[in-house]
Fold each of these.
Amino acid sequence: MAVPRLQDDIFALTSLFSQSTPSERLIQGTAISEARYGFGDASKAGFGALWERTGGIKYRLGICGKEEAENLSNWRELQNLVDALREEAKDGGLKGVEVFLFMDNSTTEVAFFNGSSKSRKLFELVLSLREMEIAQGAKIHFIHVSGKRMTEQGTDGLSRSQLTEGVMQRISMQSFIPLNETVLERSPSFKLWVEEWMSEKKVELLEPKDWFVRGHNIVDGNGILNCDGIAVPEYRKGVFIWTPPPAAAGHLDTSPRGCGSCYRGTPEG
């Protein structure tokens, strides 16, 4: 039996397959020509977004009209980012670009990641983003961060028409998005916390170079000589903890049984 959302799904498929010849969508590029970063934030009173451009940054801000202010904050947050991307696409700045957008609204991140939403308005915005990816040959990422990071980075103030905070002071955009930092670099106390509740076992914290050697119980990759004089790896079982960058983790379950407050890239998460 057809469910009510089938109509929306058919509408989305009709839109995505509207061209006479199938469109190509960038899933994973063999080479990245350019990666750009941006932030977006919206409040009931206003909105702001800023993103990197060649040679500098571009920003937009404004005041929400009565109609926009009456919508839920989730819609205002995502609409703000969609409008910013449309403006960038109009200027030809999305062609072949992989763009990472950060916001402090987890619902918008989840909706885009899942490719759908129970909210009709969010569903339509997600669909427009997918269409934009196809049309521009771009790859769009949404990453949730804390409100504190938004404030320090300057977009929170931008949505309130303040133009002198964060990157607007010519501070590097990358300094606010430490995607490359591991768990221990982000939170040095993490190691002590783990060792405290794992005190009965000898725990080894692995660096990336150790993941495919010590992480597979291999002590010496060069090997030792067996009775036949052939070098074989030396093994010893252990308890290991991998500490990759939080942003590299998979998306968490956001259903009621999952943890809806912890997300990849969250500074305090």
Amino acid sequence: MDAVVDLIRDIEGRQGKAPQADLTAARGHQRQAQFHLHNVEAGNSTGFHAPGEALRILNESTNAAARAA
């Protein structure tokens, strides 16, 4: 979650300073990262029934956030 929040703050800080195409791409990665994060959170679980799958999805979230940076 920290990676997603940091990314959102970074995108907000780059408003008006970075090319619009870069911001659009970063927002796309942010949406993907947030989707994966919410997927795990919406299940109201930390992976009790499938910890490996929850970890895989969370890794997808952090990877998407890293691609935007």
Amino acid sequence: MVPENDKKNLLTLARVTLEACVEASQTPSLEAMSIILNSFLQEPRGVFVTLYVTGEKEKTLRGCIGTILPVQPLYQAVINNTIAAALHDPRFSPVTEEELPSIVLEINILTLPKKVASYEEIRLGHDGIIFHLRNRQSVFLPAVPIEFGWSLSQTLSQLALKAGLFTNAWQAQEAWFEIFQSEVIQEKF
């Protein structure tokens, strides 16, 4: 569980980073944000940062970039993935200053992935899924299948497509899966 104070710090970190990278092409200093790095924020963690554009009653994906494995301290991963989601997600053009007021941030802090013996062990909505086949892989955060209303087989087909493979590639004998869980921290919209 992420301590309540750290949730606020992480959202502040992501918001200030988003605004600084879009408005001034800069990365703000931690001192400028008045964030004190405690042991939790310095712990290496896998993390995804997702940007949504909000409408009256819905939100639309605007960017999402993350790291599955804990290769950086949490605070640094949030900074780097916020910048990447805003400026370098290949599915979208870079975020503009005009969009900033309508963007809502979501941070997913991940557990370590673990291999499962069969895709049948995957619990939709609870587990994030990493699909592997030969030299290809793709990932969905736990909320993705729920947002789209997909069954397990539909989710696995979409993972195969995301990996650049045929929809039934997940059924290949050499395909394998890892799962992880995620704690979601998000701004209100």
